[in-house]
Structure to design on (271 residues):
């Protein structure tokens, strides 16, 4: 099992393919396993690097400890150092996009390109209260599921794919009843409480792609509009009829946007 150490803690990662490095960062409930359907497409022309943050998947759990996104930023830095990589394209979805953005402002020299899917510059009252609702529901797997999961999807997808959602429910409720998993989820959720990069967005130095979803009710469109307006070299794409879980609702488009932007050569036009 490929791991590296950071301050005595074991971090799990995966490397797939060859080429320019592309680091893809997990959403809050995800792990490296979540990317399995995308590995072939995203490693066809890039070296795809996956990593479980602390408190995720096969990485070490932070039982009894509190932290903020800064520790996950250091996980990404140590991953690149462990692999002797000077820089990479860094992409992330949701929680992972926030860590990706903080990595880019902290280590601009290590960030070739930045891809932010379903991102926000800060945890405001809306997102903060949603996180607090998740934590309050964490005593029951079923309550946690119904509090956290439906809002991740667009209403149209949730309705049309109801049988798929019911199968997801059967898988997720036992997981949400696991005290180790839900304890990690509470810590990950709490780690976002202090997240605020609004006064540091001018420190992003690389070409950036911001991807919004028209029916994202966790990180609404105006959050990405703010990012696009305050990051200098920024491109903004809006996916119609799609909720926060863009990787499930629009998988082909999701993978195409990441692979395309990560592999795009540096092109400059004289106009």
């Amino acid at each position: 099992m490929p791991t590296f150490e950071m301050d005595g803690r074991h971090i799990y990662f995966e490397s797939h393919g060859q080429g320019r490095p592309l680091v893809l960062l997990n959403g809050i409930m995800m792990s490296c396993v979540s990317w399995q359907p995308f590995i072939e497409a995203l490693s066809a022309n890039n070296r795809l690097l996956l990593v479980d943050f602390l408190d995720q998947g096969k990485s070490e759990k932070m039982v009894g400890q509190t932290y903020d996104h800064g520790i996950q930023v250091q996980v990404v830095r140590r991953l690149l150092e462990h692999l002797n990589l000077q820089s990479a394209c860094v992409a992330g979805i949701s929680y992972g996009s926030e860590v990706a953005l903080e990595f880019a402002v902290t280590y601009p020299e290590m960030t070739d390109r930045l891809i932010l899917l379903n991102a926000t510059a800060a945890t405001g009252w809306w997102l903060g209260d949603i996180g607090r609702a998740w934590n309050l529901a964490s005593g029951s797997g079923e309550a946690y599921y119904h509090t956290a999961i439906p809002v991740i999807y667009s209403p149209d997808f949730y309705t049309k794919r109801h049988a798929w959602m019911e199968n997801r429910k059967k898988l997720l409720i036992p997981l949400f009843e696991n005290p180790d998993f839900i304890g990690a989820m509470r810590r990950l959720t709490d780690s976002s409480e202090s997240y605020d990069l609004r006064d540091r967005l001018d420190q992003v130095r690389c070409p950036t792609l911001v991807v919004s979803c028209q029916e994202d009710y966790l990180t609404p469109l105006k959050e990405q509009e703010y990012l696009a307006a305050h990051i200098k070299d920024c491109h903004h794409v809006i996916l119609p009829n799609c909720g926060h879980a863009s990787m499930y609702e629009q998988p082909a488009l999701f993978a195409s946007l990441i692979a395309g932007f990560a592999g795009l050569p540096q092109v400059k036009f004289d106009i």
The mean pLDDT is 96. Residues 162-176 form the longest helix (15 residues).
